[in-house]
Design a protein that fits this description.
Keywords: Antibiotic resistance, Cell membrane, Membrane, Transmembrane, Transmembrane helix, Transport
Main location: membrane
Organism: Streptomyces tibetensis
Pfam family, one: MFS_1
Structural class: mainly alpha
Order of helices and strands: HHHHHHHHHHHHHHHHHH
Membrane topology: Multi-pass membrane protein
Strand content: under 5%
Length: 488
């Protein structure tokens, strides 16, 4: 039984270590958006390169995050977490010294691998280390501090971009890792899952990541046309089919197909795909819109986007309590509709837009929509499967959200008619942004319809979320395995 007490010096070190580790990955998935215009100018990169700067990270993270959790269970969560932090820091260093866009994109892909190793381990270490009497409070502090990090991330990122330069957005991870790794090795107890057995589903992970990468490439380069784009699209679909076949035949698949036998689980993941495709596309384009069209500095753009995260951090726990009382169907229907309304309000954000009159109202409505839906979404995912599979269900849902976001970043510029130099032409970008917000709002409405038609109240004895506060905008919180499995 874990015996670390939260009030002890070791408990405080465990909490600090896991917060630092998870914050590294969470911040890099959001603050990079603020730095994109400056990266494009400094490296003479076109819009496709900026899309890949975001998506190279998301491809490897989404494709490998389930495998990362399995590696921690088998070989030790602290060990894999430390490897992930070191990997992430070295990849961040490579990002920070990248001489051109190609090296930066490759380094971002390596960052995603590190993120896939450390992200599942952060919460798992909290759950495995603390005494049961302190575990709930420790998880609450971990998620709360992580939410604060997510809230200040775009602000810090904007300050770095306008000050020392965009490279420090990545280089800042190195000193954080230099604190995190020794603390983990000295103070965090090792843990694992003694019941973990069988072979790792490496083939499934590789096929999943390959399918995402090839389809993403085809979408980003579709505007250029050509045989390579067609071959990439066909190969990506073939890899996706092969992934399904492999998962059906393996004795220990990372994504067991039978988990989708639950109609509730399938429905809520479809809602997740719609919601996080819209959110991923929005936060990618909004940071550009505020700088390219409205004329904000990177710091002003990062600060402008804070209200959504702050609202989630302050109100997500209450939203979860409300959903427990009334059921998830209404929140998962109303939440996406509020987000859609917020994105339509962003149509007012153009040249000369006022922050108080135009930008802030849109972000407040969007933030309230995210508050309304994120906590019930997680609770419904956990409640749609058996208790012993709750951690797996959360991992699949988290990966689905990240995959949806990267597909949106790849597809939206194509759907909106953005050319390769659009982010250098304010008028052209503004027109395309308006079209993109329409696509995002449409995806959210589809998600609301699915929720209204298919989501039902989970059974009363299902696993409940432990991360009651959440500030991330790229994916729902990643829940761990149930206590009874670990301690029983």
């Amino acid at each position: 039984m874990p015996d670390v007490r939260l009030a002890s010096p070791q408990g405080k070190w465990v909490l600090l270590t896991t917060v630092l580790g998870s914050s590294m990955a969470m911040l890099d998935s959001t603050v990079v958006n603020v730095a994109l215009p400056r990266i494009g100018r400094d490296l003479d990169a076109n819009l496709s390169a900026l899309q890949w700067t975001v998506n190279a990270y998301m491809v490897t993270l989404a494709g490998l995050i389930l495998l990362g959790g399995a590696l921690g269970d088998r070989y030790g969560r602290r060990k894999v977490f430390v490897v992930g932090v070191v990997w992430f820091a070295l990849a961040s260093l490579l990002c920070g010294i990248a001489p051109n866009a190609g090296v930066l994109i490759a380094a971002r892909a390596l960052q995603g691998v590190g993120g896939a190793l450390l992200t599942p381990g952060s919460l798992a270490l909290i759950q495995a280390s603390f005494h049961p009497d302190d575990r709930g409070r420790a998880v609450g502090l971990w998620s709360g501090f992580g939410g604060i990090g997510a809230a200040v991330g775009p602000f810090v990122g904007g300050w770095l971009v306008d000050g020392p330069g965009w490279r420090w957005v990545f280089l800042l991870n190195v000193p954080v890792a230099l604190v995190c790794v020794p603390a983990a090795l000295r103070h965090v107890p090792e843990s694992g899952d003694g019941s973990a057995h069988g072979r790792f589903d490496v083939l499934g992970a590789v096929l999943g990541a390959l399918a995402l990468a090839l389809v993403t490439y085809a979408l980003i380069e579709a505007g250029e046309g050509g045989l390579v784009v067609v071959v990439s699209a066909v190969a990506g679909l073939a890899a996706a089919v092969a992934f399904v076949v492999v998962e059906r035949r393996r004795p220990d698949p990372m994504m067991p197909p039978d988990i989708f036998a639950s109609r509730q689980f399938t429905a809520v993941n479809l809602v997740t795909l719609c919601v996080y495709a819209a959110l991923g596309g929005f936060f990618f384009l909004a940071a550009l819109q505020l700088q390219v069209v409205v004329g904000y500095s990177a710091l002003a753009a990062g600060t402008a986007l804070l209200p959504t995260t702050v609202l989630m951090l302050l109100l997500s726990a209450r939203s979860g309590e409300l959903a427990d009382r009334i059921g998830p169907r209404i929140p998962l229907t109303v939440g996406p509709l509020l987000c859609a309304a917020g994105m339509l309000l962003m149509l007012r954000v153009g040249p000369g837009a006022s922050y108080l009159a135009d930008v802030l109202p849109a972000l407040l409505v969007l933030g309230l929509g995210m508050v309304t839906l994120v906590a019930p979404l997680t609770a419904t995912v956990l409640g749609s499967v058996s208790v012993v599979r709750a951690g797996l269900a959360s991992g699949i849902n988290n990966a689905a959200a990240r995959a949806a976001g990267l597909m949106a970043v790849a597809a939206l510029p194509l759907l909106a008619g953005m050319g390769e130099e659009a982010y250098r032409e304010p008028a052209a970008f503004d027109t395309a942004f308006e079209k993109a917000m329409g696509w995002c709002a449409g995806a959210l409405v589809v998600g609301a319809v699915i929720a209204a038609a298919a989501v039902r109240r989970p059974p009363p004895d299902c696993k409940r979320p432990e991360c009651l506060r959440h500030g991330g905008v790229t994916a729902p919180p990643l829940e761990g395995e149930p206590v009874r499995k670990r301690l029983g």
